[in-house]
Every structure is written in C-alpha cells, then in structure tokens.
C-alpha cells in the first residue's frame, strides 16, 4: 500500500509550455529540496492544501485559482492550472491506502536564492513539490474552542500596505505557528484573529463562518484574508438548502452574537462550541450532512461561482 506519495514538479511544464510530464515521483523519505532554496532560506513561496476524499480532491479548481492569485500577489510566474490539475491527478493515481481522506499539499518556492554561490547560476524558475499524505494528522469533527486575538493592525491595512501580502497563501507561517502556541498556553483549540478596530479576520489556518438563523456570514476577503475554499463549499450547501449567505465586514462583537459558528479549511467544515467563554449550539448531524455534501462533490459546481459582490465597504 502507498500511503504517502511525493512528487517533484517540472517547472517548464507547470509554468511554461513544455508538454513533458509535470511531475516525477520520489521516495517520501528523500530530501528533494536544496538548503539554498528560497523556501528554506526565506519562506519565500506559496502553497495550497485540501483533502482528497476517496479520490476526489475537494475544491481543487478553487484551490488552483487561489494559487494563481497568490502567485500574482507574490510577483511569481503564473502557474498553468491545466498542468497542475494533471500533476495532482498523477499524484492521486499513485495513492492506494485504505485511509479515505489523505491531505494533499502543493508547495511552490520562488526558486534558488540568487544571492548564494549555488543559486547565482540557477535557472530562476520556481520549484514545486506535491504530496498526498494518508499517515499524518487528519481532520476531526470534534467541536472546537476558540479565543480571539489581535492581529495588531487596523482593518484598512491591506489597502494602505499591499506589500504585506495579506490575502496571499504564503509559506511564511512563523506567526501562524506562534498563534497556535499561544492557543496551547490558553488551553483552547484555535484562535480568531481580529483587527485593532474590532473586525473579524480569519483563523491561522482556516476561515470563520457565523450563522444567524438561516443566514451564513463570513468576513469579506477584501479586508485582507484568504478567499476561503471550504467556506465557499459551505455557502454552496446553505444555498442548496434554501438558506442565505453574505460576505461583509464583520465586527467581532457581531460574530459573538451568532447562533452557530463554523471553522472551514482543508475540505472540512468543523463546528465551534465556544468562543471567548461563550457557548454555541452544535448540530452534529447537520455538520455530518454538510461534510458529506462537500466530499461527494454536490456543492462543487456552485462553489466555483461564489464570491463577494459589489463595492467593498472598507
């Protein structure tokens, strides 16, 4: 059985016009990355991650679209979505473990560091790694406890300082990891980040959705957060069930007044049972039904067209 599949990308096929295979496979225990690579030296790169449920990569198109958007924000070459789709399919075809929901990750580095003696004569092309892991820590649907933490800047920072790369899914996760350690110290599962003027952002690795009766609300990504992929699957489910959805600038005080809260990431919708000491209703049967709809692909097509509309009220 092959429970972990690791592939190294062919940048000429994934970013250029080459028709060669987009990936080659290596042993998971190999080390196919140089210490002179910018992803290692600077955390300079982008990535995406999702669950592959029984061979179905959840939200793959939206993940690859977001990957391309991150590349644009990072001034990196534009990836070929068709080539990356083929690469992912090749990786999935190699997996044959009984675990039904392995995690897929696509990692892209800017390439070798040209300021090093090894990197100065490199081809200056991105480096790509794709892996499917059925042995690592996978998702749980156990309800989560959260705290709110300040992000340290106001809600208008993205417009004022686009070089901060808010909204890009970068490999620079030191702050996100620090937030998780703070959560451990506070004995909670995760955190919701908040601006200094009181608006909800996102969690370190996920999006947040609030439910008020039949209305599902998430922060507008134009505030400077990731455009959630699993969140759009949840919105698709809600609309299919005759409920309403909305993107908006969401004050933390309003978020706390929700009837239910959900964390969405990696192809999963996970209930939240407590935020800042306040308890929330958890409907486990409904959560199961939502995830079944997402993993079966029933929410897929509508999720592709879900996005904020109108002018951003920044």
From TrEMBL:
<dbReference type="GO" id="GO:0046394">
    <property type="term" value="P:carboxylic acid biosynthetic process"/>
</dbReference>
<keyword id="KW-0456">Lyase</keyword>
<dbReference type="GO" id="GO:0016829">
    <property type="term" value="F:lyase activity"/>
</dbReference>
<dbReference type="GO" id="GO:0005829">
    <property type="term" value="C:cytosol"/>
</dbReference>
<dbReference type="GO" id="GO:0004084">
    <property type="term" value="F:branched-chain-amino-acid transaminase activity"/>
</dbReference>
<dbReference type="InterPro" id="IPR043132">
    <property type="entry name" value="BCAT-like_C"/>
</dbReference>
<dbReference type="InterPro" id="IPR001544">
    <property type="entry name" value="Aminotrans_IV"/>
</dbReference>
<dbReference type="InterPro" id="IPR036038">
    <property type="entry name" value="Aminotransferase-like"/>
</dbReference>
<protein>
    <submittedName>
        <fullName>4-amino-4-deoxychorismate lyase</fullName>
        <ecNumber>2.6.1.42</ecNumber>
    </submittedName>
</protein>
<keyword id="KW-0808">Transferase</keyword>
<comment type="similarity">
    <text>Belongs to the class-IV pyridoxal-phosphate-dependent aminotransferase family.</text>
</comment>
<dbReference type="InterPro" id="IPR043131">
    <property type="entry name" value="BCAT-like_N"/>
</dbReference>
<keyword id="KW-0032">Aminotransferase</keyword>
<dbReference type="Pfam" id="PF01063">
    <property type="entry name" value="Aminotran_4"/>
</dbReference>
<dbReference type="InterPro" id="IPR050571">
    <property type="entry name" value="Class-IV_PLP-Dep_Aminotrnsfr"/>
</dbReference>
């Amino acid at each position: 059985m092959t429970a972990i599949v690791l592939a190294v990308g062919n940048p000429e096929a994934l970013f250029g016009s080459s028709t060669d295979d987009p990936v080659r496979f290596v042993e998971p225990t190999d080390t196919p990355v140089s210490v002179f690579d910018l992803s290692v030296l600077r955390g300079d790169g982008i990535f995406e991650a999702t669950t592959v449920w029984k061979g179905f990569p959840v939200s793959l198109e939206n993940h690859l679209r977001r990957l391309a958007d991150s590349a644009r924000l990072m001034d990196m070459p534009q990836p070929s979505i068709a080539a990356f789709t083929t690469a992912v399919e090749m990786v999935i075809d190699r997996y044959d473990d009984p675990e039904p929901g392995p995690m897929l990750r696509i990692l892209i580095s800017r390439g070798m560091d040209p300021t090093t003696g090894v990197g100065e004569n490199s081809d200056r092309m991105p480096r790509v790694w794709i892996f499917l892991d059925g042995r690592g820590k996978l998702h749980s649907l156990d309800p989560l406890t959260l705290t709110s933490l300040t992000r340290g800047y106001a809600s208008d920072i993205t417009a004022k300082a686009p070089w901060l790369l808010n909204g890009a899914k970068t490999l620079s996760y030191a702050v996100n990891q620090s937030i998780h350690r703070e959560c451990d110290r506070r004995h909670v599962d995760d955190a919701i980040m908040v601006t200094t003027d009181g608006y909800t952002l996102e969690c370190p690795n996920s999006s947040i959705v609030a439910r008020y009766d039949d209305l599902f609300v998430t922060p507008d990504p134009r505030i400077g957060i990731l455009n959630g992929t699993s969140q759009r699957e949840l919105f698709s489910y809600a609309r299919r069930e005759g409920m309403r959805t909305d993107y908006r600038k969401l004050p933390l005080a309003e978020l706390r007044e929700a009837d239910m809260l959900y964390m969405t990431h990696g192809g999963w919708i996970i209930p939240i049972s407590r935020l800042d000491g306040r308890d929330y209703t958890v409907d486990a049967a409904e959560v199961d039904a939502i995830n079944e709809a997402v993993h079966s692909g029933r929410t897929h097509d509508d999720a592709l067209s879900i996005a904020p509309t109108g002018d951003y009220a920044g």
